[in-house]
Design goal:
Length: 411
Amino acid sequence: MSVRKIIIVGGGAAGFFAAINAAENAKSSNMAVDVQILEASGAILKKVSISGGGRCNVTHNLFEVRAFCERYPRGAKELLSAFQRFQARDTVDWFQKRGVTLVAEADGRMFPDTNTSETIIKCFQEAAANAGVQVKLNHKVESLRRLESGKFMVQIRTGETIEADSVMIATGSSTFGHTLAKELGHTITELAPSLFSFKIENPMLNDLPGLSFESAEVKLLIPNEKPFKEKGPMVITHWGLSGPAVLKISAWAAREMLHSDYKAQLKINWMGVDRIETVLDILKKAKTEGVKSQVHNVYPEQLAKRFWVKVLEKAKTPDDKRWADISNKELQAIADVLFATTFEVLGKNRYKDEFVECGGVDLKEVNFKKMESKICPGLYFAGEVLDIDGITGGFNFQNAWTGAWIASQNL
Ligand SMILES: Cc1cc2nc3c(=O)[nH]c(=O)nc-3n(C[C@H](O)[C@H](O)[C@H](O)COP(=O)(O)OP(=O)(O)OC[C@H]3O[C@@H](n4cnc5c(N)ncnc54)[C@H](O)[C@@H]3O)c2cc1C
């Protein structure tokens, strides 16, 4: 019986998921396969290990496929049909079948119940071993060639060559992976970092690192571009602003920010309310409650005192002002600050918990029914090597699981 040889380039999230599923499928249908993962470095699943602060945010507790797609600045259209075949619920079931329970946090992020990425790595290692997947470390693939026979010649850095029936490129954001795809005729779209926080230097943010806002609205204004808007938790850092609202907006505007050299204006609505009148109502309530007190000492319960002091400074409210003496004009000035403070963004900062690259293999060149190249039959892609990226919250891993699962049905 001939043995079908499947080579997976890259021992990361997508590579492991594809290899395990392909080998398990073959086993259950009595097909003889030799599935090999070739990993360039000396360790597997490195990003899984460090992901989610070492806890691995595996997916997101959102099982409505259309809503799930809305979390992808790039790839939403293509992923819609893919998620109809393998979505977050299938990920939860897949891990459950292998003894790993995923639990959701209040914000929807799902982690293994052990709270450590080691659980995911161990699960993959055991499943790969049981299914007979071979994992070869320090096997950097340097070149891929399609032979006239339709098979592939895989050239390893060690000098070794392997002939394969099908190949999957699952090299993540590595530019070397992009080179392999280009060798086989693919186009790589413009690369840009995604999921970053903003560098801002402004006295209003000084001395406030760590201060968070439950639901701020952020609006990003980049010269000559349409404005971007997001809402969600936000945090002041030592270098500017971060947190889900900022990271999300950085993902949506990843390419535009690259083109503007990370210079833009960021307008913050600190309380995330829809109308300035709502801010005025909140301030009037504080005034009623503290009419005999100084404005400095009685403030809306949603705000921290040290932030309130900064708001008053920015609104030019005198230190000794009492609520009883505050004019409508002064009240309006405070409301203006709370509703729309504008900062100059001076640059970007890498977000340590989840960092992805936008750009990769052009999606027009991939058949999403199989995750197979439209240019080079027998070549498959999954994960971050594609021009797909999601916002923070488990969406990037779900892209890897879904693409890898679909590819595994065809490899
Ligand atoms: C710090 C951090 C935290 C993150 N946390 C989360 C999170 O909690 N949730 C989430 O959804 N996403 C998270 N992400 C994003 C997520 O890790 C990636 O989207 C995901 O790992 C992509 O999977 P992949 O298999 O495509 O690529 P990777 O996991 O990056 O794997 C690619 C592999 O290919 C190997 N490789 C590259 N070139 C070659 C070659 N030529 N030959 C052989 N091997 C090669 C690499 O060494 C690597 O092991 C995080 C990212 C970072 C950096």
